[in-house]
Amino acid sequence: MIKLPDREEFIFSLKSFVGAMMALYLAFRIGLPRPFWAPLTAYVVSQPLAGAVRSKALYRVIGTIIGALAIVTLIPTFVNYTGMFALVMGGWFGFCLFMSLMDRTPRSYAFLLGGYTVGFVAMPALADMSTFNISGIFDVALARSEEIILGVLCSTLVHSLVLPKGIGSVILKRLDQVLSDGQQWVNNILTSAKTGGESRMDINKLALIITELRIMSTHLPYDTDNVRWTSNIVRSMQDRFSTLVPVLSAIEDRLHVLYNSNQGTLPDEWQKLLTDISDWIARGAEDDRPENAIRLRRRIDRIIPVLNSESHWEDMLLANLGTELYRLVDICEDCFDLRRKVDIGLKGEMPPNEMREPKVSTMTLYVDRKLALSSAFATAMSMIVSCLFWAASGWPTGFAAPMMAGMYCMFFSTFDNPVPILKTQFYCTLLSSPVSGIYLLWLLPSAHSFEMLMLLLAPFLIWFGTYLSKPATAVKVIPFMFTVLATLTMFDMDSANMTSYINSQISQAIGVGSAAIFMAIFRTASVDSLIRRLVHSIWEDISRLGYAVRAPSVVAVTVKMVDGISLLAPRLALATKTGMADHPGVMAATNILSDLRVGLNMTRLLRTETKLEHQNLSVRPVLERLSEYYRHEKKTRDVATEGLLDEIDMTLYRMANATGPHLQQSQAIAALTGIRRDLFPDALPYSPS
Known about the structure:
The chain is an all-alpha fold.
């Protein structure tokens, strides 16, 4: 049963159509040589959210300029050397795709455009070498850039002025949802006598939402709402949300151990503290009295046991728990304060210290370089083979094969397995052929005015445009709709005849099929191998901490590792669903939260190192031992060695028996206690003897 579009989808489609027709009309009036490029581009940059349209438009313009510069540089140099031309085209596409995959934010769109703009512009210009003029390649690049930029500007103008749908409201709704879920999660952990087993999945879900928010918020400075003035504050809130993940998971684990060792109870003062913290967090941003958070921190300081040479394991666990509770209060206080600043920005006022809010760069997010390299290589090989096939066949309309091959490889390289989606694109491209033929050979020649042309295009574009606003339906509609629009450019090229049309459709199908084949050959990767590579990347980051000269930011380390967890979450769900739970990579990922907490405690040890050295205490040996474990031993064995446990216990013993400033020793002991608990959950408790 066909689902009819709702009001929002219809409005989006209508705005996209108006932007495309405005671009087409202006292209005709200005006298651009290929006017149908303008509406095609207008649809490419159309997005339901105004901020996303603006940022995508900016990156598309930048990418188009990069592509145009590449055209005027590469084409005249290599066009007379078939083999070199194919290698250069493959290398350019592969390089642009690799650079695009190195940035997981919408900025990567500029590199993507810089790549396939060369194919879209240069390949049709080389269709007939008998009429090709090297000196005119600059005019071709300039004309295509003008047509593309015109389409971008018209689409951006319409989506920004006509019933704009701001991305800020979507982000704020997500932020409030994360804040609400976090409050509920804190309440469940702090007020329950026993922690449940479902929190791990909640953590994965929270990490996934935080990363999605981080990437989505890159559009925020381009939005139409007042919330764009608070983009730095929103980014800072996301950083604080990331730090909640390891802190809450650590509190949950420590409470679980303490409850089990004390018959399900804690000392009254601790139990009352947990209840009061839960009540304070439940009030959220509505409680704007800073003295409440100050009182909670003072109470935590009072009841944390003083650690010395006689302290036992339970005392150290309580000290570690108190330290994590202290961090929880700090993080929540920051989140509530930042949320109140966002409300100030929504009123059109500049929040205090907005520009000075510290935030972690999105460049710290994880990228799979091996996957990026294999994607770039597959794209390059697809382009090289398609170009050589085009040259060897002497087929004028064969230019569509390398053009489509490179474009489809670049579009779907972000998928873990792009082959199934490329097969779908292939079938949808074939289905679009009859519609393309009807418009190109019958309806378009019958239009004797621009108004008639609009009436002919309206039913097709408006109806299918309603399915572009949702990713689930856009995947199938994009190849169908955009192939039709791309075919209409043949009308500009004076090749709107049956022979050229059939040849172009066959050439396009060959290009999409080539993309699927080369991706299947060079780009296949199992879910287990993807999980294993990501887990090893996280371990490598942890191992580097032990040799760090300066202590990195705890927030920056947390943000990056939580991003890794967000990438693992959907892959772990897929692996479990497909019966791969016992595979090595999947099993290694099940304890990744414990590894995250170990990495953060190593960072905290680094931050106390300088002051501890003044007392002739060193944490460097245990840090280096931990680094060696994560660099080598953890990849070959399931559990940590007894030697590492002895090293941790000896360091704990030295810290507990030392004299000097109590603060640095307590922080180091709390961090070492967390490391010991996370690495050796089943080991005998530490004993001062």
